[in-house]
Amino acid sequence: MKRILCVLLLTAVMISSCGTEYKSDTYFALDTFITANLPDIGDVDLYGYIRSLEDTISKTVSKSQISEINNNISYTVTDDIKELIMLSNDVYQKTNGAFDITCGAVSDLWDFKSEDPRIPERSEIEKALENVGSSGISLNGNTLTKSKEGIMLDLGGIGKGYIAEKCVEYLHEKGINSGYLNLGGNIAVVGEKDNGDGWGVALRDPLRLNDTVGRIIMKSGYLSVSGDYERCFEYNGQKYHHILDPKTGYPVNNELSSVAVLSSNGALADALSTALFVMGLDDALSFYQEKKYTFEAIFITKSGYIYTTEGINNSFELTSKNYIMK
Question: With bands split at pLDDT 50, 70 and 90, how would you rate the model's confidence at 221?
Answer without folding.
Answer: very high
